[in-house]
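Help! Submission page says 'invalid entity' but I think these are all valid:
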Amino acid sequence: MSTHDQFRELIEAYALGSLDSADRAVIEAHLASGCAECAKALEEARWIVSQLAHLAPAAEPSDMLKGRLLQTVRAEAAGGPGRQEAVRGAAVPWWLWAGVAALLLFSAYSTWNERHLRDAVANLQRQAEAQRAERQKLEQQLRAAKIQAHEAMIWSDPKSVKIKMPPKDPNMPQLEAMWHPEMGLVVRGWKVPSPGEKRVLQLWLIPKTGGKPMPSVTFWPDADGTFTAMVENPPDALSDTQALAITEEPMGGSPQPTSAPMWVGGVS
Amino acid sequence: MFLAVFSPEGNDEVSPDATLMQQLLRRDVSAFEELYERHSRIVYSLVLRILRQGSTAEEVVQDVFLQLWRNSARYDVSRPFVPWLLTLARNRALDHLRLKSERQRRREEQTEEFPQIASAAPEYEKALDEGRRAERVRALIGTLPSAQKKAIELAYFEGLSHSEIAASLNEPLGTVKSWIRNGLMRLKEGLQATS
């Protein structure tokens, strides 16, 4: 096998993002050397990898998501044309734009300066894009941190009620839940097997009045069998709930349970 | 089922999606709504499969579509739209997953806000519409042995590296590498065979 063939063997996994760091460094160095054949193969491999999305079980987003998005988009559209440019402009410090203006004046006198101006503008755009990417990343981190902090607060607050959820099947692990009267409900599990194909786990609130179980969130454990399901606004109050239950349901959840509870925990 | 709304995309003509993306440059809300109607289900399905929780998945899908709206100028109309959108959504979802689990980022798109997808779709992309190609992808991957299929799913949906997959499945590293490469090659050949 030639050295080139060895590089080609890494292309698909590189496009998938599954290479370990040593292999990734090898293929990135090779691609940086300008191998046109591998670059073309990588483009095709990225297309192939994107097709794996079709393996995801079909699911429908809520109507509320569309409503929120359209509300935001309409508000931004009504804010006048060129908001995108306004955002970009806001992300660039004023002194950089001053630098561009200075370069513009200077470039009027020589083509040499024109070339430098183009470089400067490209550099500014790169900086603006980097700043925007960084801002989006920070917003994402902030959201994730808020969720984690919220979960931690529920778990540690003395007003939270701990609910043990023993399994019906003795071979399954016990789950734990914490319910805070104001902050919401968190359910955690470890070593929980994945539900079947196109199935999810769904949380239910059993009312004290003996009425129908109230449907709540759906979720899956990760590859290690770990999950954390948080419900900020449970469909019923802690004081009105007799028990929590978890069943396995079809993808997207069910309005009422279609299988026997796998875990049930009494709310004291 | 929901994939049937997709239409083929080729190199030599502007796809309906590319036209809608161009309309976004003029702040056309109805074009945005149509793009959302066409693709929100597959994007949500993918993100939900990765994140496993509906509320978090909706946050990420919202981010993805707002990114389309706010940065439509950065989409190259010569690129196939749906794979580009799906790669963008996968990157966002895996970033979110990794932020939560504090795993190190491993993907090549680590610092890319917008993904790099083939500047032109492979020839065989034109052979099937998106719905039929989705069925074909599921059928082709479905023929793989379950452990091989699991390895590919762990890489794609969980963002795991070869080493992490080998540890998770308790299989030799070399075996996992072969499974993933051979599985993707079989997918490629299967899609080529339909062209």
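Support: the input was valid. A stray whitespace character was the problem, and the output above is from the cleaned input. Chain B has eight helices and no strands.
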